[in-house]
Amino acid sequence: MAQYRTQTKIIADILVTARDMNTAGDGVGITTLLRKGNVSYNRMTKLIADLVGAGLLEEHMLEKNAKYKISERGITFLTAYSQFEDFAQSFGLRL
Q1: Which residues contact 74 (CB under 8 A, 6 or more apart)?
Q2: Where in 2-93 does DSSP place strands (E)?
Q3: pLDDT given for residue 2 in this prediction
Q4: What is the DSSP letter of 5?
Q5: In sequence order, which residues have a C-beta less than 8 Å from that of residue 47 and are 6 or more positions away?
Q6: For residue 54, how far is the Cα from the chain centroid?
Q7: What dotted CATH number matches 7-90?
Q8: Domain ranges, ordered by start, for the chain
Q9: Is the sign of the CA dihedral 5, 9, 25, 54 positive or negative?
Q10: Would you give per-residue pLDDT tens digits along the chain (95 residues)?
Q11: Distance from CA of residue 87 to its chain's centroid?
């Protein structure tokens, strides 16, 4: 049976991508987030809007393209999520 990702896991995947794929330092584009997040464009745009609104991602306009960087708050979220995921797995649970 296929394992579906939760909304929280998808958010964590997006934040990890924004953190790890930002090699040039100017952020990552929506195409990169789409490929690594593996969700539809419509869902990704809604998620990005939510993440920017929550302060987990920072949006920067470069020319006519938006680039996204993980914020300090996003890094804090990922740290807490990782700790909770490890805690749950220690009890044999999968998030």
Answers
A1: 15, 18, 19, 51, 55, 56, 57
A2: 57-62, 65-70
A3: 60
A4: P
A5: 10, 11, 14, 37, 39
A6: 12
A7: 1.10.10.10
A8: 7-90
A9: positive
A10: 567 888 999 999 999 999 999 888 889 999 999 998 889 999 999 999 999 999 999 999 878 889 999 999 999 999 999 999 999 999 998 87
A11: 21
